[in-house]
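Narrative summary of target 7.
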Amino acid sequence: MLLDRYPGIGRIHVLVRPRAGGSAEDRFFGRVIDTEPFRPLRERHGDRFEEFLREKCRPMAGDVSEPLLGIPEAEIEALRGRLGCVINCAGLVTFNPSLELAVAVNTDGAGNAAEVCRRTDATLVHVSTCFVAGTRRGPVFEDEPVLGSFPKKHADDNDEGLRGAG
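Modeled conformation, tokenized:
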């Protein structure tokens, strides 16, 4: 968790898709902060936990499948030069979504995040939510070389090159 490891970080704008009849802030503070990833912060801050989060986090209504993440143009302009980095970890994690929904969220969503970064001069970090190993079986370690989007295909095409033989 970013706030656990870097408590001195500036303000975090959290894109939250609001539920019908509620706001992004209601959903974030009413449901999200009680989840397991926030446990270390709850333990560290105790009774001040929610106050700490309210100082550090600004929930923003939006949807990754919408152009500019559903953020109004005026808000995008206000964020220009003030937004350092966007961490996009949104995505569908169900195994059988419709192709239309999967593309809208997992593909177009990344493009929409990139467009927000382009317009605000922010850096984009994209984190895939599932299916990151392709057809490969077993552990995939973070220090392994990145082979592109089809590692099995590259491994089959150029096995010798991957092992450093020449």
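The longest helix spans residues 99-120.
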